[in-house]
User: What shape does this take?
Amino acid sequence: MSTTVTGQKSLSENVEILGKTYKKDEFTNVTKNILQKLDRNLHNQHCHPLNLIRKRIEMFFYRNYLNKWRSQIFSVYDSLSPVVTVEQNFDSLLVPVDHVCRSVSDNYYINRKHLLRAHTSAHQRDLVKSGLDAFLVVGDVYRRDTIDASHYPVFHQMEGVRLFTSNELYGLLGMHRLPQQFLILEDGGARTKQKQSQHRPETAKLLELNLKSTLEKLAYHLFGNEIEVQWVDAYFPFTHPSWELEIKFHGEWLEVLGCGVMEQEILDEAGALGKVGWAFGLGLERLAMKLYNIPDIRLFWSQDPGFLRQFEVEDPQTSIEFKPFSKCSPCTNDISFWIPENYSENDFYDMVRNIGGDLVESVSKFDEFLHPKEQRTSHAYRIVYRHMERPLSQEEVNVIHEKIEKTVTDKLGVEIR
Ligand code: FA5
Ligand code: MG
Assistant: This one.
């Protein structure tokens, strides 16, 4: 027997995920709690807010991007397996072998070859290879991240990719019948802050303008013209140049997507010779929080009818303002301990989430202290517990908190102060 999605613990060497068996190794760090999320498919659940918002976005791309025969150019993939190879998630996207984003402390590895995708970009290369020029991918993604109102270890992304031939791109300026190689510089010009070496400056600029205007129009389509947006320069190994889009949410800037001009090497590798393209990856929860005024990212996982019923509408374009169905007060408990040498903060966050489940609203480090004589370090964390649907008693919280103390002592080798 093996550890299955339903979580029966056993002694075996294998993990079974979505009907396939994987051999565990020293990389394996997927938890039962995380594997249970694979069955949920919130983005495909009728009338779930993540389903409504993805439909709104798809509608935007279907209506506004048509070919000369007036049929839509974008196609949508929403059921690709979240189990991907390290090659798909990182190598195919030119992520350097020693890049920190590959580490076991940031990802959910099934074994050294497989992991739960950390982003929908993991499918870019394969879909381009299959011959597509314009597509959207919707799916659940997994990251060992901090926990707060806008971060959760499982969330949903939508990836968008659009490729252009020379005529398609320069056609945007009304220029047609250009030679195909006009996009690409054969002699490889210089790579600068603004462009890749193979791209003409005009090619890079046109892609940037088309990408940014597409995403700004999408933001106005979702939120209306009053929305405040700003572009921030960014870095991704698979795009250059790259940007992030931020929107104002509750008075603060919230990053909602990353994007950029696709690295030509990826396109060439995928066989899209002579084409250039842009790509973006957006966070569906972040956009839905803004659109429906949902205050906490954990609410998306609620099965409470008080939550789900508010989104039962025929037409995804219907405007909905989420009304909190209860405001139960939180319980706050602190935990502090001396850390051992090989301590990883994300191991601690995972353990807290595993034991406390969705009762854990946030975990934050509020103190770090190096003992001058003993030369050892202590960390202090504040854990906020809150139930979304009913009040929690301090006794109930203490039981969980003590279990956390015991488990981190046993498993992480910390010493409670
Ligand atoms: C990426 O994941 C890139 N793959 C995006 C991309 C695609 C860039 C294509 C270029 C081309 P990033 O790690 O910034 O980038 O995540 C993208 C979005 O996912 C963020 O802007 C945010 O909206 C959302 N996001 C990231 N982490 C979390 C989290 N822990 N919880 C909820 N949403 C998150
Ligand atoms: Mg980012």
Notes: The chain has two domains: 40-82+117-298, 326-416. The two ends are 39 Å apart (CA to CA).
